[in-house]
Amino acid sequence: MNILVVEDDLNIQRLVRETLEADGHHVQATADGNEAARWLEEHVFEAAVLDVMVPGRSGLQLCADLRSRQEIPILMLTALGELTDKRDGFTAGADDYITKPFNPEELIFRLHAVARRYQKAVIPIIRFGDVTIDKQSQQLTIGATRLSIPRREFELLHQLAGFPGRVFSREELIEHVWGLDFMGDDRTIDVHIKRLRSRLQNTEALTIQTVRGHGYRLEVRI
């Protein structure tokens, strides 16, 4: 996962970064809340570990910003015994908290536990009415018709279907489907969406909607 870490104690920040990287994740870490806020405009994160109090935009504000944008695991770091921080963190949308000082192993098992709640996008088979999206076989089935479609097109559909109703920007879809190294034009998304819409024209179960100025979302009609 691409994980945002915001912590102004550099020793703790380094511990968190090294722990997450050892678990196989990519980490972008900063001690400044304003820098983190800028990153939210430029990157798609799949999880976040946020200290409650950091310079600039606070961890609580960043948590609320992230939660308004997308559904990802968010862990808050709090000082020992600060029940107010924990209460405010949950109110802002945090999934869990870790009290400092903490055991690195605890960070990992809490992250894994929370991440399991967000696994719908990677469920092998997603069904809506007469539509089945099978990730393992990379096939789309509508009624009795089974379609084998290009890999990127399938991954785009699977990403949208994993979060029905959520609006994805073109930039988010490119990062999720093509990755950070994509060098093409973001209009590539529009071409793939057009092709997917033509494939979905024979079902009333779902449709891909354009949200002007924002991106695309999958609308389920059943």
How would you characterize the overall build of this protein?
The mean pLDDT is 86. The chain is built from 8 helices and 11 strands. The chain is an alpha/beta fold. Helices cover 40% and strands 24% of the residues. It has a 5-stranded parallel β-sheet with strand order 2-1-3-4-5, sandwiched between helices. Helix 1 crosses helix 5 and helix 6 packs across helix 8 (187-199). Strand 6 (125-128) and strand 7 (131-134) form a beta hairpin. The longest helix is centred in the first third of the chain and has 13 residues, at 10-22.
Keyword list:
five-stranded parallel sheet; 222 residues; alpha/beta
Would you summarize the structure shown here?
The chain has 222 residues and is of the alpha/beta class.
SSE blueprint:
Blueprint: E1 2-6, H1 10-22, E2 26-30, H2 33-42, E3 47-51, H3 59-69, E4 74-79, H4 83-92, E5 96-100, H5 104-115, E6 125-128, E7 131-134, E8 139-142, E9 145-148, H6 151-162, H7 170-177, H8 187-199, E10 206-211, E11 215-220
Parallel strand pairs: 1-2, 1-3, 3-4, 4-5
Antiparallel strand pairs: 6-7, 7-8, 8-9, 10-11
